[in-house]
Design goal:
Elements (H helix, E strand, L loop, with lengths): L1 H18 L19 E3 H8 L2 E6 L2 E5 L4 E5 L5 E4 L2 E3 L6 E3 L2 E5 H10 L24 E6 L16 H18 L3 E4 L9 H10 L4 E8 L9 E5 L5 H15 L5 E6 L3 H4 L5 E8 L3 H7 L2 H19 L3
Parallel strand pairs: 9-10, 9-11, 11-14, 12-13
Antiparallel strand pairs: 1-8, 2-3, 3-4, 4-5, 5-6, 7-8, 12-14
Length: about 325
């Protein structure tokens, strides 16, 4: 009887989530969110479980694979359900902007509660044909900004959107040549909303996500590249960042290190993800170098080499 009541409540909540509630479809244009400490996003959770985010709204989210349905509802009565049964302690599930974050303890309680069965692997099996080389992995390259969003404008008047698109196309070509399968969130000067970039990566079943940007600061002397991962990133995200940093360091360029920040494109992707800032457009010398094709190509080649090193397990 108790199980029947729980199942009825769970199904009713699921109908509410599917129907949506006030605020569904809202767009949040800020490039960062502030994830509560000790939490991971539902996209990071789905990726770690080999599941898909089948539905999301301010009311809650639904994660699915072939054997399980996980439903997650935010506070004030936050609770996660696995196949109709509550798991983990209630509370602590926060909606920040348009993204749900789950306490790590709740995430850890979900995994053993999942029914065994054929779940979606992180990288779906793809047929191998003798006429084509075996691909190392599927990588989404995300050139920042675009269209009506120029990004940072350098002291020389060049736009971040143009610099990072050129670098991204070069990196994509180098990855393809090295045996990677590459998809771009944009291949020309168009505007793509931040959430759509992450959704594209998730739909594509990407193995890795690399967002490419150029930085700006009030301090005109600031220079060097920076690599970002989410504050609650996976170990693999950190290893990917380290592989790219090693290759970029080999160019003799100043490194500002690997930093943690909850950029929207990092917390809403369900695969290992990094964001690379190639340099500072607010620095006159660095802006001039980034405007030169040879310099951009060297940076893009280093990013691609780092990704390939990671895919090859180096």
């Amino acid at each position: 009887m108790r199980h029947h009541v729980l199942m009825t409540i769970w199904l009713a909540l699921g109908m509410l989530s599917a129907a949506g509630c006030t605020g569904q479809g809202q767009r949040f244009d800020g490039d960062r969110v502030t994830a509560p400490l000790g939490t991971i996003s539902i996209y990071q959770l789905a990726g770690s479980l080999g599941m898909d985010v089948a539905a999301e709204s301010p009311c809650g989210a639904t994660l699915r694979d072939s054997a399980n349905t996980v439903m997650i509802y935010p506070d004030p009565d936050g609770q996660a359900y696995v196949n109709g049964v509550p798991v983990g302690r209630p509370g602590g599930i926060k909606l920040v902007g348009d993204t749900l974050f789950v306490p790590r303890a709740t995430a850890e309680a979900i995994r053993p509660a999942l029914a065994r069965g054929a779940r979606r692997p992180m990288t779906p099996a793809r047929p191998v044909r003798s006429a084509r080389p075996v691909r190392l992995g599927r990588v989404v390259i995300d050139p920042g900004h675009g269209g009506q969003d120029p990004g940072a404008i350098s002291v020389l008047g060049t736009h971040e959107k143009s610099i990072v698109l050129a670098a991204s196309l070069t990196a994509a070509a180098a990855l393809e040549d090295g045996g990677g399968e590459v998809l771009l969130t944009r291949g020309d000067d168009r505007y793509v909303p931040l959430n759509d970039r992450a959704e594209f990566s998730n739909r594509s079943r990407a193995d890795l996500f690399v967002s490419i940007h150029a930085d700006s600061a009030e301090n005109a002397s600031a220079c060097g590249f920076t690599i970002y991962v989410a504050r609650s990133c996976s170990d693999e995200s950190l290893r990917l960042a380290e592989a790219i940093e090693r290759r970029m360091n080999a160019l003799g360029i100043a490194s500002r290190g690997i930093r943690r920040a909850d950029y929207r494109v990092l917390v809403r992707t369900n695969c290992p993800a990094v964001l690379v800032e190639l340099g500072y457009l607010s620095n006159r010398g660095e802006a001039a170098r980034l405007a030169r094709r040879e310099y951009r190509d060297a940076l893009a080649g280093a990013v691609a080499a780092g990704v390939l090193d990671h895919l090859r397990g180096r």
